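User: Modeling request: complex.
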Amino acid sequence: MIPLSWYLILAGALFCIGVYGVLARKSAIGILMSIELMVNAAIINLVAFWRYGDPNNVSGQAFAVIVYAVAAALASVGLALIISIYRRRSTVVAEDINLLKW
Amino acid sequence: MTAMQILFLGVGIAAVLSAMLVVTVRNLIHAALWLVVTLFSVAITFVLLDAGFLATVQVVLYIGAIAILIIFGIMLTRRVMMSDVGPQVNASWWLGALLSILLFATVTWVVLQMDWPSLPTTDLSMTLNELGHSLVDPDKYVLPFELASIMLIVALIGAIAIAWPGKESQ
Amino acid sequence: MMPQFDVGNIGAYLYELIGWSLSLLGIQASMITFIQKLVGGLVLVNFVLLTPIFTIWLERKFLARFQDRLGPNRVGPYGLFQSFADVVKLITKEDITPAGADKVVYNIGPVLSVVSVIGIWTVIPFASTMVGANINVGILYSVAIGALGTLAIMMGGWSSNNKYALLGAFRTAAQLVSYEVPLIVALLVPTMLAGSMGMNDIVEAQSVWFIISAPIAALVFLVASIAEVGRTPFDLLEAESEIVAGFHIEYSGMKFGLWMLGEFAHAFTISALTAVLFLGGWRGPLVDQFPILGIFYFLAKTYFVYLFTLWIRVTLPRIRIDQMNDLNWKFLVPLSLAMLVMMSVVYKAVPSGVSEAIRSLVLFSANLALIVASLGLLARASRKLQVAEQVNIDMSRARAPANLSALQILLLALGAVAFLAIFVIATQLVLGLTT
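Assistant: Request completed. Predicted assembly structure:
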């Protein structure tokens, strides 16, 4: 029997690795991949609490389904933005996209 | 150590290791492929949590669509077919590493302090039917469901409008 | 205790026999289950990998007879050993890895393609008691594992360090991902008719075959699956005469053989899926007393659908990539969505006490009405196209590319919201009438 804390620590580890990726990666697509890691960590949390809390109440899984839809929309719009920026500036390095910086 | 615990440890270590490779490898395509391994490990975790439907949705959506989209994005935004030269991290990566380690330590400490409930033994055979009903029941979650579909249509139109070639590419 | 020999249920008997003989050796219970499942998995994988040997010969003979020639007839009686000769040739070829290729990804690509096909066979029921894993999300699982094949093709195309292979992989991935949309929508129809996503439940719910209740769904599923596999008429991805000869230019020897094996096995797999979902799977006369007969009915239906796809392959010419995109987004997707809405409304409108035969007849006539309506729309559109071509061919080329203005986007969004609101109200009304 797997204790709930193991799932939460796994989700926490994935989330923190995602945080490191967002803060440290140069390429915008690398940052997007790290964001997907963080969303996955959140979904693991949701499903673990659904299973160990009250499995008869399916709101945990319903919430997870909605999160999947949001993640799909996030990835598609993010990549469209990255491709559009690449067309203009020929770079996807996040630090070089600094026209609005003061 | 029961068999399930060994399986969970194996899957968990695979997920964490491949996630670390995602954020550290230099070649972006390799990072995307390690992301696929991570997503598959997360799907196996869902199977261990008795959420088989979410496991298959994870594979279809994340691996079958989002990962392929990310690989497309990487291939379309490369200058020539050379691997990326230079370091893949920016100058303040040590600060990011420090922050994430601190965050992980805090979360783990808090989680280990608390007293979590044990696994409830309920009959989970009708979960899929109930999930379907709850997503279209007016007393439950039909509103988030419809709003999510509207949001997907908006994202679809928006992504096409943003990435449209326009007048520059003649 | 020795298990009973029951001629009708040989699979279960062999399973128990393995377990009993292992328990005689003193192995503990969980290990016995593991070994039993391992043996079952090995049998299944061998079946999937050895079947293309026969179906490749069948395909070459069948196509040859359609084209008024003989086909392979030298290697063995009636050319039966031709596949073995091909395999020996592929194995003895030089295994070239292109310079600058990414070795690990290059080697994993064909393997992942074959693995994704074998994985689908886990959920396909051979008989009422013979199924690898009777999960209740079988349909979604088969789509999910099929999506891994798309990833494998992209890996193969990118790692070849060849611009043409990369372009071919792009086009392939675009086609495969596009055709997943009508595939999944068409898969919703047997789910709705059977009330479950599990394959065994769907077969058990087919007292009247689903191809009668939902012919449009069967056709859309078959067409989308043929496009997913990449067979003619959709084989622009890997045809030898295309300029970008596809994602597997740089593969030679047995790795190329693995790509081909994956494609033939996938074609057989979608025939099996069509047979299970729409033609009644293992159902037939006398299966209740002798479950073993289910395998023969299932294989007969699978081979029938496979020969049907071969017939399509040998008859139709290859379509171009823009025709393929138009076919998907302008025809299959609206048709499948309209079919889904129509099927669900008609299914709920039929009162629940009615027998299955009458219900499927009503559904069949509704499908027929939709076919007639869509053919009429297509005829009208093609007539308009012919008129436009006759009048003005050059003017259409100089038209400026369409850009969606902000007002158009707003109107589209409002239209979407209005459609959703009307749809929700309509379904609530229908559900309220026939709870």
